[in-house]
């Protein structure tokens, strides 16, 4: 279970890193073509107007989240995994609700794709990984206590 948890935390870190680098360092490109890399959806631009400051802030906020995911994946402690996934969930749930209420400018296929991808990546996946941290709790409590190797206390 640790390997799966670490892999999913890494996936979330890659997601935030990708969005962060793109929006933070190429805000106009993210606005015009985003938010799915390599696919020109234009979904961000469908909600004008362009604001470079807000797009960059979104990008750098995602890079900040990436730092948390890197530490969580490296240390893989329950509290770090839960903190990282809860932070993304706190962003993802209202973000998904907002988009689900503003679909009139999109085709039916785009609307479904937007809601499914947003829900899956920023609500469902973080919630699943948050729950998986419970298995990390059990694994830590099953480990014998570490002894000090130097004999000092």
TrEMBL record:
Keyword terms of this UniProt record? Membrane, Transmembrane, Transmembrane helix
Out of the domains of life, which is the source? Bacteria
- The protein, known as: Uncharacterized protein
The UniProt transmembrane annotation reads 58-74, 79-99, 111-136
